[in-house]
Please model this.
Amino acid sequence: MPVTTATTPRRAKARGSGRGWLALLWLLALLLSACSDEADNGPAVEHAPGGDLAAVLKRGELRVLLPRHYLDQVLPAGTPRPGQAFIAQFAAGLGVDIRWVYTETRHDLIPQLLAGAGDLIGTSLVITPERKRQVAFTVPLGVVREQVVVRNADRADIAGTPDLRDRTVALHPGTAAWQRLELLQEEIPGLALAALPESQTLVKTLDQVADGFYDATVIPARLGREVLPTRPQLAAAFYLGDERPTAWAVRPDAPALREALDQFIYANRLAEQPETYTEDLDGLKKRGVLRVLTRNNPATYFILRGERLGFEYELVSAFAKSRGLRVEMVIPPSREDLIPWLQQGRGDLIAASLTITDERRAIPGIVFSRPYNEVSETLVSRAAELPLRSIDDLAGRDVVVRPSSSYWETIRKIQAQGVPVRLRPAPEEQETEWIIGQVAETAYDLTVADSDILDIELTWRDDVKADLVLGEPVPHGWVVRREAPKLLTAVNDFIAGSYRGRDYNILYRKYFRDPHKVRRHVEFRTARSGVLSPWDDVIRQHAEDYGFDWRLIVAQMYQESRFDPEAESWMGAQGLMQLMPRTADELGHDEPTDPVGSIRAGVRYLALLRQRFDPRIPLAERTWLALAAYNAGYGHVADARRLARKLDLDPNRWNDNVEKAMSLLTLDRYAREAEHGYCRCNQTVRYVRDIRNRYDAYVEATRNLAANREGNDSRAGGSKEDGQGRRMPGSAAAAEDGVKEAVAGP
Model:
């Protein structure tokens, strides 16, 4: 089939997740997930050979396959296509241009992908076994449920698939609905399928059903809710099966591109626009939450076998507990975002081992706490090299550090003393531990690290060493907004009462001095290994089958059983996913301690619960509601939603709405009026909150792992090009372009 193209240039490199307005585009993209796109004819594109992410970066162009016809009756001509906008954000994040490659029919998408005409099928396809044998799907974008549409006059006679006997259903061949109905033809005598031309619009098909030319058609349920109210002569008869996940597709031989797409989807999957506010301690107490901005590394905050740990995490948690607050950890994309996010009101306090410097003190709107730790900035070199005797030995050497770090200013001061040391920027998303690894592997020459971070690294590695100590010890401090003086006073009082006290010293030794514990933290923490649980592969498989982010299921599993397949609750719930015996029987799970069976049954049960909520509720909110129902039962969540309406809260939104109403069901005056009575619903609120917090931590940990791995693979040597003289996106060399004035010497 002919293939035409249209090119969209990259406007700007995307940073962060763009979670607010991007979420709106996301929902619109799901609405149109079964549709295709229309574009002006362009020049024919040659079928380039296949290739993975490296080929896309080298070419500087992502080729996205879309079918030609794209429901112009739903989106007026000229309206930006939301699915395309979302993919364009991905391409911009890679730093490449995007080329839209249009096929004549949806049938052509997979063949053209496999033939090398494109890198990605950019319209979400229903994941079916047949398609999985041909292409590699990304993690699910969402779920779709299809409904059979008939004339209103026939609605009473067509209430299920058996009623399609001797009926003709019109739809496009090759779709998931077509494949499903083909299987039903063996069971339903006289069921006929009419193949529609790919160029035929939905409007024409609906007109033909309304006129009696066909008995029925099949459309996505979301689309039906938009279209059918304008056509009173038509009605949705019944759903054609359960919800099924949808995804983008790449060639099976493009695992790196698929992983990059997965990370992009994960970053926006269950994300919602975080509320921003700038309140002092009184306001935080009313909210009950302290939002702590930090980074994921062994000195601050990390996940170890499901537990949230870290020196900064435990210390700030002790402070929050002393003020009656719960901690919510917020992790920006890079260290350079910490202070801007605080200024914007996306967090209340920074606890990230930040060195107190004159330059940082001068930043408007922020103030440091009193010091709570003291470290020495130390040059790190390879163990086999001769030691440096003085800063004069740095002449002609490269020192690689993040521009936002205090180390950058330290080396600048050495340059100002006349030492011709070259200062090279490391990517902001690389943590110091990874930069030390780059030094060990000779990708970087030298770097600088705080002594406590280096102490952690030296407990398990012998390929680097502490070299010169640069100056006097420097203090670490937490940071708050200047307009929060009460919070600052509370923080300072806490530090004054705890610094170098018994509990503080025990905590410090746990993370920086005890070799056994430190090695355990390094060996098993998620951000280093990428392993969340002993059953990650099984979870991935079943989460994908039902349209869940696998890391959410891991977070739930930890909450349920702490990864113990033999776990049993006082109420009789059993196994990794803690299913009650009756529920397990209904799901066909008869071996409670079998990990694989428990995972399969638990994910299926969560999917069934999610499916019970109105599909017009956004997918993310249905997921949180389903988690609450998993813990408390669907009936209690329904009670909470009814109570939320009475209290003028949003019954379709969990956070600060249904969760508030659910907490009230523990009170007798509300429980008496609830259909399902009293509920230990405070426990359920904590259950969902803990899963969300752990899920967020898993997302950040695995995202940072991917970024750092990419750094190890593509940034080695500090100056990497793509073969055509262009800087690789996100490379150290690209970062260096913006700070060349800081480099001294030849």
Summary: The chain has five domains: 3-141+246-268, 146-241, 281-372+476-528, 377-471+736-742, 536-692. DSSP finds 30 helices and 25 strands in the chain. The longest helix spans residues 681-714.
